[in-house]
Every structure is written in C-alpha cells, then in structure tokens.
Specification:
With 150 residues, chain A is of the alpha+beta class. Chain A has helices at 19-32, 117-125; strands spanning 35-40, 46-47, 53-54, 59-67, 70-79, 91-98, 105-110, 129-134, 145-149. Chain A has one domain (19-149). A five-stranded mixed beta barrel of chain A has the order 5-6-7-9-8. Chain B has a domain at 214-357: Thiolase/Chalcone synthase (Peroxisomal Thiolase, Chain A, domain 1, 3-Layer(aba) Sandwich), CATH 3.40.47. Chain B has a nine-stranded mixed beta sheet with strand order 3-2-4-5-1-6-9-8-7. The radius of gyration of chain B is 18 Å and the shape is globular. The chains are: A alpha+beta (150), B alpha/beta (358). The A-B interface holds A 3, 5, 8, 10, 14, 16, 18, 22, 47-49, 51, 55-56, 74-81, 83-86, 93-95, 97, 103-108, 117, 121, 125, 127, 141-143 and B 21-22, 60, 119, 123, 128-131, 133-136, 140, 143-145, 147-148, 150-151, 185-190, 225-230, 233-234. Chain A: InterPro entries: ChsH2_C (IPR002878), ChsH2_Znr (IPR022002), NA-bd_OB-fold (IPR012340), Thioester_dehydratase-like (IPR052513). Chain A: Residues 64-109 form the ChsH2 C-terminal OB-fold domain. Chain A: Residues 30-57 form the ChsH2 rubredoxin-like zinc ribbon domain.
C-alpha cells in the first residue's frame, strides 16, 4: 500500500503598517542617508532603530537623534546560505553599536575578503570600528545600508 | 508569586521520530499522549483539562488546535493552547491547578520538522519591518550569541569535548532520534556537530495536585526585550532571572540541584544557558557541558529537536531521571532536577522548572 502525502503551501498576502516611528526612520534613510534613534523618557537610553516606546521601561520615547555613522562591531556570524535580495554568500551579518547609540543594530558587513573564512573571522574578532555605507539609491528600507570596516 | 507546592507529575512520555509516513500529526500526538496517560496509571478519570504548546506555522494548519487538540484528549475537556514553548505550557497548567481551575491536566507539546522547511519557517518568525528583509534565521542568532561568547573569553577549548560527550549521550539515549532527521547549514562559528538534529517531537505529561512520582518545587518565567540589539548578547538575562525565581521558590541553591536538562538550540546555547542559571562561571559553560555528566544527560539538542516541544521534552527527561527510569542514560539517583525551555523566536522567553523525586 502506498502511504499518501499531500503537498501544501501557505501564500497569504499581508500589508504591514510600519507605523510613524519606523516610517520616519526609513524616511531618514532614504532622504538624508542618516540613522536615527529615539531616547527613552525613563532610562534615557538612545534606542536604535528609532521606535515609539522602550519595551524595557514601558515608557514612550521623545527626542530623535542621529547616531553614527561610525560604530563598533559587537558580534558577527558568517552565513553561507543564499537569501533573495542579499548578495551571494558568504556574507557577514553583525551587530554594531553606532556612536551615540545605546543599543546594537544588525546588518550586513561588506568589503571584507571572505576567501578565507577563518582569517576574516580573526579580523572581526578584534571588534573593529565600522562605518555605515549607504546604497546609491536608498529606498527607505533596512537594506539601504550596510557596514564596512574602517 | 504563585505557590506551586503540591503539584505532581503523574506520568510522562516523549517520542522523537522522523518522517514516519505511517502516522499523521494527530496520530503522533495521540500515541504520545496515550503513553503519558498510561504511564500515570489512572486512565482519563479525573482529567478535566488539556494545555497544549503548538504553533500554527509549525503545524502548517491555521487554528491548528481545532485539528490537533482532540488527539491530545481535549474532547469534552477545557482546552488551552499556549503558542510558545512546552515548558511555558507546563507552567500555565500548574498555575491553573494552583488556582483551582483544574484538578488533573494533560500537558502536551509537539513540532513536526519533517513536514516543513525549517529555515523558511524560521525566517517567517522575525519582525517583518527591520529583520525579515535581512534573511535572519534562528540559527543566525545562535551564531551571533556563540561568537559573542567566544569574544568575551568563553572557554572554547572545551567545545570538542562537550560535543563528544553530548553526542555520546544522544547515542545512548533510548528516546533519542537514532535514524533520520536533518541538520541546517551552519553559520560561523557554528559547525555541523553543534547544530540541533531536527526531528518530529511530541512530549506529554499528566499533572495533578495528588501526591505522585515527581513533585514540582519551583518555577520561574522571564522574557527578553523584543529587539535583539537591546539584549545582553551571550548572557541570557531572562533565563538568569527565571532560574533565580525558580530556585527561590524551591528554596534551593543551584548547587543543590542534582541534574540539569537545559534547552538550547545549539551546543553554544546550552553552554551559555548553564552560565545563566548559575551552574558555571562566566565563560565556563562549555567546560561544564564537557565534564559534568549531570548536564543534559539526554544529549540535549543532539538527541532530536522539534519546536515548540523542547521545554516539555526536557521536563520529561528530568522526570524519568528522578524516577530512575531513564534507562541507559540514568545518572544514579538524583533527588532534584532543573529543566528549562525557551521560545522559538531567538530565545525571547524562558521557563525554568525545578522538580524533586517525591
């Protein structure tokens, strides 16, 4: 007796509302090529990416402030699988605390020779300084920028 | 704080399998829940509720508990579905017994990795606005944490020995997945052997307020911030808090605990968790995993991994150890055990359960 398997696929469409804070964050990326954070009214940390509230303090944010464009790498991984819209692997994904920010921001790190993964990792292990690099035509998305080693 | 004195585990069961086309998901659930009820030895008499840990995306069925809950014994009973890890569902079931809402409860959790693309599903869990466009997966977060742990001076020299020990434990575990399963592609610094063995997992227990084989001594739950960049990388502060709460409730020190069943997706996650619960000093979690046979004698994620069942799986393994029924991986006669579970979205929520041989 053949045991039956049934193929299945979910393909629902959604339209996600980014909200005012995220929209302004993306607007700043596209129009001014700068990364913005918002300050928690309670703990006073500058949270990046900008957001409407601090979920640690459950308090609203108020002040908007530009961070970076330089910062310090906090940790990284090197990914060897492909993902649509991203460069061909291997790619470096890292958390970076931009100057002036109190939280880390994740994105790709470009400009590193990845022909020798271990050698690249040793370089990143030193927690190097990095700089934000914008794409030529920002679209107001998180993929508008990446980091490069200084 | 909930007073959890007086809740007992009557019966427990777990099954790890892979792509068994002879049984559909509901039949897998039915089999393991039936074993847990049989293990409790009183049939369905007095069981008035079921608390389930299951997720629609994992199950590939919207409102999946409509389909699956009856297989877990929900017919004409109060049913609650907890869309998080199985250890959290266990805690919710305990709270209901303590509140007098239930007297005897089935807790069940499952995840069938062979029915879906684990990586695709993982990417779908992340925030759609800031993180999903970067293709983030659960495993990438584990890799980021592992690398931060290494940067902070974690004793990575013990990784090979830790992996060898947990691999041997998984091979010896009669309940582990011994054929089939699959592994994802590792992201640096992780390697194949550090990764979970994806499996079809079902775990179930029967709990009540009547004295039985294993007694609950304490439990604690805690959550990380949503934003990954806000978290203490490689420190697991929410797990630390959950363990502190559970130990305080149990009136025990971590040094009093005889056995640990810790949930972590990768070898490094397990090592970091041992530091967070206070068993190992900072940077020494891998060494503890390598040298302490009381840490994850089941083999942890190497024995088979199917979210969101893993927290309850750890509770089942700890229960069997406390009852001297763990078989070839039995670790003497432990009196106390600590089990933990974490949520699938980058370990945002943690549950710690402390059990005692009754």
């Amino acid at each position: 007796m053949d045991l039956v398997t049934i193929e299945g696929k979910w393909a629902f469409n959604y339209t996600y509302f980014a909200g005012e804070s995220a929209s302004r964050f993306f607007h700043e990326l596209r129009e001014n090529q700068r990364i913005m954070g918002t300050r928690c009214t309670k703990c006073k940390r500058l949270l990046v990416p900008a957001r409407a509230y601090c979920d640690t303090c459950m308090a609203p944010t108020d002040e908007w402030k530009e961070v970076g464009p330089e910062g310090t790498l906090e940790t990284f991984t090197i990914i060897t699988t492909a993902f649509p819209g991203l460069p061909a692997p291997p790619i470096v994904m890292a958390y970076v605390t931009l100057d002036g920010a109190d939280t880390a921001l994740i994105n790709l790190v470009h400009g590193l020779d990845l022909s020798d993964i271990e050698a690249a990792a040793q370089k990143l292990n030193t927690l190097p300084r990095v700089r934000v690099k914008f794409v030529d035509e920002p679209k107001g998305r998180i993929t508008d920028f990446s980091f490069e080693l200084i | 704080m909930v007073n959890v004195d007086g809740v007992y585990i009557e019966g427990a069961a777990i099954e790890l399998s892979w792509a068994d086309s002879r049984r559909n998901l509901m039949e897998l659930i039915y089999d393991t829940v039936s074993k847990a009820v049989d293990d409790a030895g009183q049939g369905y008499d007095g069981i008035d509720s079921v608390v389930l840990a299951a997720q629609d995306l994992v199950d590939g069925r919207s409102l999946s508990s409509m389909v699956t809950a009856p297989a877990a014994g929900a017919y004409l009973r109060d049913e609650v579905r907890y869309s998080d890890d199985g250890a959290g569902a266990f805690a919710a079931a305990v709270a209901r017994i303590e509140a007098g809402e239930s007297e005897r409860t089935i807790v069940a959790a499952w995840g069938r990795a062979s029915e879906h693309d684990v990586e695709e599903l993982s990417r779908s869990l992340f925030d759609r606005i800031f993180m999903a466009p970067l293709g983030l997966e659960e495993l990438h977060v584990s890799a980021l944490n592992a690398q931060r742990w290494r940067i902070d001076g974690g004793d990575d020299g013990a990784a090979a020995a830790a992996q060898a020990r947990r691999g041997a434990a998984a091979r010896a575990n009669p309940r582990a997945l011994h054929a089939g399963g699959r592994r994802s592609t590792p992201a640096y610094p992780l390697r194949d052997e550090h990764l979970p063995l994806w499996a079809d997992a079902v775990a179930a227990v029967v709990i009540s307020g009547k004295p039985s084989g294993v007694k609950l001594r304490g439990m604690g739950l805690s959550s990380e911030p949503y934003w990954l960049g806000d978290r203490g990388l490689a420190q697991a502060p929410a797990l630390r808090r959950a363990a502190e709460r559970a130990l305080a409730e149990a009136k025990l020190d971590v040094g009093d605990i005889d056995l640990f069943e810790i949930d972590g997706m990768t070898l490094y996650d397990e090592a970091i968790a041992l530091e967070a619960i206070g068993l190992a000093p900072k940077g020494q979690g891998m060494r503890a995993l390598a040298e302490n046979p009381r840490c994850n004698p089941s083999g942890g994620s190497a024995a088979g991994y199917g979210v969101p069942a893993m927290g309850l799986a750890r509770i089942v393994e700890a229960t069997l150890q406390l009852q001297g029924r763990a078989g070839t991986i039995q670790q003497g006669k432990p009196r106390t055990a600590l089990a933990s579970g974490l949520s699938v979205t980058a370990a945002q929520t943690h549950t710690v359960i402390i059990l005692e041989a009754a």
